[in-house]
């Protein structure tokens, strides 16, 4: 969903990597994250992308 919205350019999960298996490719570069960091990033990105839409009233 984040890639489809243009928020990230890609995501790779390296199962063999213990500490930071998530590789998130952003326009600014590659960010290495652990599971907690990746979940908080995803939540923040979704809120940022859709927050205005959710606040609009018919």
From TrEMBL:
This is Uncharacterized protein.
